[in-house]
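Service request form, structural biology core

Requester: graduate student, group of Dr. S.
Request type: structure prediction, single chain
Budget code: on file
Notes: please return the result as C-alpha cells.

Sequence provided:
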Amino acid sequence: MTRDALSELAERWPSAIVARTAVDRFTGGLISSKSLANADSAGEGPPRLKIGGKVAYRAVDLVSWLQERCTA
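Core staff response, request fulfilled:
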C-alpha cells in the first residue's frame, strides 16, 4: 500500500474516529485489532482515545502512524 493510498483511508472512512475493533476493516485487513492492541501496550501505537471503556483512534492519527511504518 502506498502513502497516497493510506492518505485516502481517512477521507473514505465514514467518521473521524476508528474503533479499535474496526481497524481491520479500515486498513483492508492489513492490521488486526489485536496487533494494534499489542502495539499500544508496548507504547508503539498511534495516539488513542478511550470512549466508554472502548479504545478508538482519530482516523488521521491512525493514517499518520501507518504512513510512518510504510516502506514503499
